[in-house]
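Private note to self, pasted from the team thread so I don't lose it. Backbone tokens:
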């Protein structure tokens, strides 16, 4: 016979189970994907080329992300390895998968000093290419690649990483090689104009790393980025926004991030966080060599990482009116250029980390 004591202990047991379940918020919240939690605020994205991805990885993308950036396959070197050769198999397959699975695509990237065939800058007889020849090649590249994906991408990182590191912020401080040496500073405005001519509906962004640095004190790379963006706007470049890449670490200056967002918005530009990852170890914005099998990162680092992600998403939420998209640079600690530094929300086995729970919590509030 069920007596009063038994009923009371049953109720106590049920209460304990519910409380324990709720405290383990991953069990509750991971039922929702990231994109669901941030719907109506900004898009949530990730990066990858999709070639060789497992069913579980593809399912993770479908569940969590609104939009995909091709991590490598749309860059100049892979799409246009020699002057007369184009290669679109991987990006075509990626775009097709996205269309079939309700995922948008972001184009990355057209003008960059890296992953760009040296042939762009070589002239006849081993001489450097002239400004005219290099521009003609760039124009053809933009017309071909942007034209191929016209209407199929939300926008493009037209220009990537043109500002050099370690400047005081008094000038644009453009890199002194590649496009900036062969053509000059006006290559940027021309690239924006050609991309717009080819796909007038695409959003066109300037994308760079560390451009939030110095925002609070108005110096360094941030100040350079403001000078550059003001010049592009004055020259009539059809620029819609700025991509703050967001390759961050446990001690990143969060104040700079918020100030940079409001600075860019004050120029009438949209802002996206385009390549977000926060390393659980290491103190700069680069990558360690790939470490395998050596799990020496202390547990508390993952909690600190969750805290940094929490603070960042609180900022993004506060500025959701100007933020178009927050894209993570990879889906898991296994699919990351910073492998070994465990910088993403899912571990190598696609299990949600404390950082995932923190981001979900901020979005659910
Ligand atoms: O994640 C990309 C990695 O697989 C490539 O080897 C690398 C080559 O430079 O590019 C990485 O992506 C970069 C992105 O295109 C631009 N910002 C910095 C990213 C990380 O290096």
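Design output:
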């Amino acid at each position: 016979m069920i007596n009063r004591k038994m009923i009371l202990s049953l109720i106590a047991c049920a209460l304990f189970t519910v409380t324990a379940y709720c405290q383990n918020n991953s069990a509750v919240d991971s039922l929702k994907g990231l994109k669901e939690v941030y719907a109506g605020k900004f898009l949530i994205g990730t990066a990858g080329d999709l070639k060789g991805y497992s069913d579980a990885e593809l399912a993770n993308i479908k569940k969590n992300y609104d939009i995909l950036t091709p991590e490598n396959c749309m860059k100049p070197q892979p799409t246009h390895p020699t002057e007369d050769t184009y290669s679109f198999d991987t990006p075509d397959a990626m775009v097709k998968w996205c269309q079939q699975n309700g995922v948008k695509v972001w184009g990355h990237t057209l003008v960059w000093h890296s992953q760009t065939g040296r042939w762009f800058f070589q002239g006849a007889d081993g001489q450097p290419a002239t400004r005219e020849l290099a521009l003609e090649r760039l124009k053809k590249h933009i017309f071909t690649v942007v034209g191929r994906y016209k209407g199929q991408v939300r926008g493009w990182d037209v220009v990537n990483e043109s500002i050099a590191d370690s400047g005081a912020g008094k000038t644009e401080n453009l890199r002194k090689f590649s496009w900036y040496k062969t053509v000059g500073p006006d290559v940027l405005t021309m690239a924006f104009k050609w991309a717009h001519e080819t796909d007038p509906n695409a959003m066109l962004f300037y994308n760079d790393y560390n451009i939030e640095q110095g925002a609070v004190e108005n110096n360094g790379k941030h100040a350079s980025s403001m000078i550059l963006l003001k010049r592009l706007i004055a020259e009539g470049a059809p620029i819609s926004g700025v991509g703050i890449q967001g390759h961050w670490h446990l001690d990143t200056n969060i104040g700079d991030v918020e100030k940079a967002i409001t600075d860019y918005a004050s120029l009438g530009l949209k802002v996206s966080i385009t390549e977000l990852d926060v390393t659980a170890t290491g103190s700069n914005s680069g990558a360690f060599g790939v470490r395998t099998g050596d799990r020496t990162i202390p547990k508390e680092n993952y909690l600190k990482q969750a805290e940094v992600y929490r603070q960042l998403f609180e900022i993004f939420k506060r500025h959701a009116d100007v933020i178009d998209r927050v894209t993570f640079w990879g889906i898991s600690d296994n699919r990351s250029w910073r492998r070994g530094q465990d910088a993403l929300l899912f571990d190598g086995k696609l299990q949600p980390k404390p950082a995932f729970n923190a981001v979900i919590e901020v979005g659910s509030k």
